[in-house]
Design a protein that fits this description.
Its main location: membrane. InterPro entries: MFS_dom, MFS_STP/MST-like_plant, MFS_sugar_transport-like, MFS_trans_sf, STP/PLT_plant, Sugar/inositol_transpt, Sugar_transporter_CS. Helix content is 74%, strand content 1%. It has 512 residues and is mostly helical. The chain has one domain (17-506): Up-down Bundle (Growth Hormone, Chain: A), CATH 1.20.1250. The longest helix is centred in the last third of the chain and has 30 residues, at 417-446.
Length: 512
């Protein structure tokens, strides 16, 4: 195990070893990310399978095989989009409920509940006999997704030493990319199984769901959650266990102090809305997740086979191209695991956005020039498009993909952490729903210009990060407010009264 020390405020130092227990808990919990990624990858491949379309979406199947059908409109169907997007409406509802469930019962049991929902959804999709049963399965998967995405990144951030928090939290995103890649492999294999291939693809989610369910009984809950629920002694013992050290007094005292403040807050959602000092992390986290979804990445992950078939790729070639982008996504995420706690969050976000901007503009320009309503692009142009889509995926994988989840999980104080993180996750799921539900229609109407639409948003988000987002690298979560928001050139105005009171107290004067 690696040794290390976490710098704290003043001259205090908190022990920060990267222990086997922390690694084990992080890996097991991150299977929730694997399930998220598996669903993203599997839905795109399944919606391009003829057997699936013929059974559930016969109109789309007919349009797909009409030689003169408009390239940009052949998959445009509101029910097909609902198959992909319905999951995310359920996720918003589940995220809200799990934010309260997690505070009352802990992160660990919230993770266990998510795995049960995932299992139910996978079995419903496996045995789906009609569109209603198929959508019901998607809704159960959405409930699992909302619970998992609400609890897992916070769980990982709370058990991690500050020095390694970024790299450990990105394991969640890494497992998302692994899930996407595995889903692409599964789709490529099952597409050759007549009539039942899509069932195997959709039902395959039961395997990682079972691993997450069993694993949830072997991981610990977080010390912060235990102390928050009045289990102080258990919280101290758990902290000693995950740090593999008895020298945890300073860190435990920080958790207790944060918990004492948190337990005074009976209505954290009202606290977020009414108190100005909660607005900077709330605004930043939710806007960050809005931008994350409007990079256009989920368009590629959801509909990669559809996009490639639009360009004239055959069914197998489209799935193979989706596998390539999935592999790039998976391996590129490793870059952020090893750089985020060295380079920092902000630099990676800016560099990633600029690289993605290049990919979107080149792909949009090539399709505008060469892909008309009824033709297929040349082999050379197709290869270049795939290369620049891979460039886009490469950049997203080490920047906006993992860092959206990481930053939102670490910027809130304990008293509003569950509530604040709900708004971030809720924004993510809402925007994912909008993109999934609207993309095929947007593609039909905007054609190649849709890539320039996402490129414009990339320019806006780059400027927003440079101007408005503070760096959070290496800062203990209990000290985030003092060391980031209160000293930021813009956000510090939300804390001016508190800062003035502190200055007066230091001078020995009573606070106003």
């Amino acid at each position: 195990m690696a040794g290390g020390v976490i710098a704290s405020s003043g001259n205090r130092e908190l022990p920060g070893k990267l222990t086997k227990q922390v690694l084990f808990c992080t890996f097991i919990a991150s299977f929730g990310g694997f399930l998220f990624g598996y669903d993203i990858g599997i839905s795109g491949g399944v919606t391009s399978m003829d057997d699936f379309l013929e059974k559930f979406f016969p109109k789309v199947y007919a349009r797909k095989h009409r030689a003169r059908e408009n390239n940009y409109c052949k998959f445009n169907d509101e029910y097909l989009q609902l198959f992909t997007s319905s999951l995310y409406l359920a996720a918003i509802f589940a995220s809200f409920l799990s934010s309260m469930f997690s505070r009352k019962y802990g992160r660990r049991w919230t993770i266990a509940v998510s795995s049960i929902f995932f299992l139910a959804g996978a079995f419903l999709n496996l045995g789906a006999k009609n569109l209603g049963m198929l959508i019901a399965g998607r809704l159960f998967l959405g409930l699992g997704l909302g619970c998992a995405n609400q609890s897992i990144p916070v769980f990982i951030s709370e058990i991690s030493p500050a020095k390694y928090r970024g790299g450990l939290n990105i394991v969640f995103q890494l497992l998302i990319t692994v899930g996407i890649f595995i889903a692409n492999l599964v789709n490529y294999g099952t597409s050759k199984i007549k009539n039942h291939g899509w069932r195997i693809s959709l039902g395959g989610a039961a395997v990682p769901a079972a691993i997450l369910l069993v694993g949830s009984f072997f991981i610990v809950d977080t010390p912060a959650s235990l102390v928050e629920r009045g289990k102080k002694e258990e919280g101290l013992n758990t902290l000693k266990k995950i740090r593999d050290s008895d020298n945890v007094t300073e860190e435990f005292n920080e958790i207790v102090r944060a918990t004492e403040v948190a337990n005074k807050i009976k209505h954290p959602f009202l606290e977020l809305a009414m108190k100005r000092h909660n607005w900077p992390p709330l605004i930043s986290a939710t806007v960050l997740h809005f931008f994350q979804q409007f990079t256009g990445m989920n368009v590629i992950m959801f509909y990669a086979p559809v996009l490639f078939q639009t360009m004239g790729f055959g069914g197998d070639a489209a799935l193979m191209s989706a596998m390539i982008t999935g592999a790039v996504n998976m391996f590129s995420t490793l870059i952020s695991n090893f750089t985020v706690d060295v380079v920092g969050r902000k630099r990676l976000l800016v560099a990633g956005a600029l690289t993605m901007l290049t990919g979107q503009c080149v792909v949009g320009g090539l399709l505008k020039q060469y892909l008309l309503s009824t033709n297929s692009v040349s082999h050379i142009v197709s290869i270049v498009v795939v290369i620049f889509i891979c460039l886009f995926v490469f950049a997203y994988a080490w920047s906006w993909g993992p860092l959206g989840w990481l930053i939102a999980s670490e910027v809130f104080p304990l008293e509003t952490r569950n509530a604040g993180y709900f708004f971030a996750v809720g924004m993510n799921m809402l925007c994912t729903f909008i993109i999934a539900q609207a993309f095929l229609t947007m593609l039909c109407n905007m054609r190649a210009y849709i890539f320039f639409f996402f490129a414009t948003i990339l320019v806006i988000m780059t400027c927003a990060v440079i101007a408005m987002l503070p760096e959070t690298k290496g800062i203990p979560m209990e000290e985030m407010m003092d060391r980031t928001w209160k000293v930021h050139w813009f956000w510090k105005r939300f804390y001016q009264n508190e800062v003035d009171a502190e200055v007066q107290l230091e001078k020995g004067k009573p606070a106003a």
